[in-house]
Amino acid sequence: MGYTDLNAPLRTIMTPGPVEVDPRVLRAMTTPILGQFDPRFLELMNETMDLLKYVFQTENKWAFPVDGTSRAGLEAVLCSVIEPGDKVLIPIFGRFGYLLQEIASRCGAEVCTVEKEWGQIFEPEEVINEIKKVNPKLVVIVHGETSTGRLQPLEEIGRFCRENDVLIAVDAVATLAGVDVRTDEWWLDAVIAGTQKSIGVPSGMAPLTYNDRIEKILLARKKVERGLSGGSSNNSRRIQSNYLDLSQIQDYWGPDHLNHHTEATTMLYGLREGLRIIKEEGLEARLKRHQLHEKALVDGLEAMGVELYGDKAHKMTNVTCIKVPEGIKDEAIRGTLINDFGVEIATTFGPLKGQILRIGSMGYSCRKENILKVLGALEAALIKYGAKVNRGEALQTALRVYENSSEPVLI
Amino acid sequence: MGYTDLNAPLRTIMTPGPVEVDPRVLRAMTTPILGQFDPRFLELMNETMDLLKYVFQTENKWAFPVDGTSRAGLEAVLCSVIEPGDKVLIPIFGRFGYLLQEIASRCGAEVCTVEKEWGQIFEPEEVINEIKKVNPKLVVIVHGETSTGRLQPLEEIGRFCRENDVLIAVDAVATLAGVDVRTDEWWLDAVIAGTQKSIGVPSGMAPLTYNDRIEKILLARKKVERGLSGGSSNNSRRIQSNYLDLSQIQDYWGPDHLNHHTEATTMLYGLREGLRIIKEEGLEARLKRHQLHEKALVDGLEAMGVELYGDKAHKMTNVTCIKVPEGIKDEAIRGTLINDFGVEIATTFGPLKGQILRIGSMGYSCRKENILKVLGALEAALIKYGAKVNRGEALQTALRVYENSSEPVLI
């Protein structure tokens, strides 16, 4: 009948999110509440915006979190930009492309898709040719497709969109702060991220940024709520969501702080601390760290004799997919890892379910001890279920990667 | 250029939300992350659902939080229930009624409103007569209108709706866990709350509950996403939001745990702890505590000679509105309170802005020391700006209320 103290086992979380959170972030989240219009809280909001611009590598005026999980951020951008009947092109190369299609169609878009076999990415010209054919108002595309572990090159597509007055919005939920995401240099009009992946903050916020090409649409669709000071307004082009209406949310984050929602105080504390940690580490150093640990993981897996899945040239740095050996159940391996070793890795979705396992190495989870732990535990699980592996090679190989690193590996 | 450690002044937050959070809740939020499908995390989700049913006083199958602030919960219910052209009746007696109107109209409803002068509530027959006239599919109404501090009686309206096959959804964002909210006994089909008010948890989640009359609509409108196992489906009655689609969210909270979003781990830890505290205190004792502190506050204010605003018979227990004395600026009083005493109280919206100040006594903020502090600080501020007050009476009166309480006042 009673509910016990909150006890949670300490897990080594090597999934593509949510991942472990730096204890500093959790500690920052114990800071007492401030009112949403408290002068100090407004300063913290402004600092968070500045830090987000650094991580998004952008000079955009707007960068703030939406109070919801990643797909709230995706929907905020899509429903704020898309008007009924707008043509939207969505290149799909995994599950999260389908999600974009789903959201865009619920916004009333005329959605055109082009699909690639799972495990591949699009050559930029393929997307560009499709843009020429379809002539959409907006292209929406996933950067890091965690369902397959693939990374889509964006710069050429972004430049083509800009030169041809097409908008492009990018789902960088899994990549931002773990893989290079150059909002401005790649000509991206809107980029959406999540807190629970490479940023290393608990799930529940969706940081995003957008430029003045997007803002122009927001301003044209703006509708002021009744009951606030300053009167209301009508707008036949109004955004279909109130909660995810970026024209209102930017007024809340802007200098007027016009009441919209009540900012999620404690999550904002956590996000600010997570971003501050990124700034202290340095974005470039952080991306290099993700690359180094990826190399230790991948070389270790290959030394073990495990087969990697997907087009290796376009692999996400922070997600590694392996094929489940013939005759073994993915859930058996996952079960041994979590129940005996306290290590969580992930299965996947749709057509690949049962065929691959996914290992994340994101944010605070991307540490030497975690890479070594997942390699050791995976080897034991594979041996237990009768897979043929090169015993003892994985850890030795990974250790050598760390020893040969030009810089000391502290974490 | 550097960003400092997170420093936030310790405030006494006597607004209608967000309010102070019990240190136990903040401590629970430092628990390390669990994966969203970790067996232990699924247990925590189930326990949270059970605890929510206790607080909502319901036997409903469904009670869970939406990952967003309160208005995300309101929009989740409205957009999941309302189909384009549906007739929706919204009785309005303050700012948050306008918000319901705003959200419902963005869902494509044909919205009918009936308005009451701010500071009043509706007699149940007034709403019932309007229902008879309009014959809506759905009535949406605020329970505790924080913009004016008024509490709308709901039972008669709820019963009439049930007997006449009309649905009723209630915004109990400000009331749940601080004021009596009887979901089942009052015949309410859906009730939406917020974490940052009387529940005493940081902003960022919107707990809600609904019954099988609502679920029937959700199931009829359900559309499965592509890219998940089990194939996709089409549905011309599909819900316009993906993120706030309750038919998908209930599948995520249900026994199948079908992937939708990534549950906001740390917020869930906080919500579970906040609800556990309510269960330990006992809902009835908690409501009585709110009443006692309200009496100390109100009697103290009246002894001071401050004029209360609004229909006293229908005052919210946890929000007290006072008229700003002639010739004094509301922001001057608020400024002295926060800058000199560290006490935050609130102004309000729309037509009442500048005329009243609002004092909250919600959740963990609803404590003896806080009531006494706000009374003392307010008296000093009013004297400073030249208002005529009965010096020294407020605190003596409030102290007597506590001394005369039949039970010892521990907090």
UniProtKB/TrEMBL annotation, chains A, B:
Its cofactor is pyridoxal 5'-phosphate. InterPro entries: Aminotrans_V_dom, Aminotrans_V_PyrdxlP_BS, PyrdxlP-dep_Trfase, PyrdxlP-dep_Trfase_major, PyrdxlP-dep_Trfase_small, SP_NH2Trfase/AEP_transaminase. It comes from Scopulibacillus cellulosilyticus. Transmembrane segments: none annotated. It holds the Pfam family Aminotran_5. The keyword Transferase applies. Keywords: Aminotransferase, Pyridoxal phosphate, Transferase. Belongs to the class-V pyridoxal-phosphate-dependent aminotransferase family. This is Pyridoxal-phosphate-dependent aminotransferase family protein. PANTHER family: ALANINE--GLYOXYLATE AMINOTRANSFERASE, AMINOTRANSFERASE CLASS V. GO terms for molecular function: transaminase activity. Residues 40-347 form the Aminotransferase class V domain. Gene3D superfamilies: Aspartate Aminotransferase, domain 1, Type I PLP-dependent aspartate aminotransferase-like (Major domain).
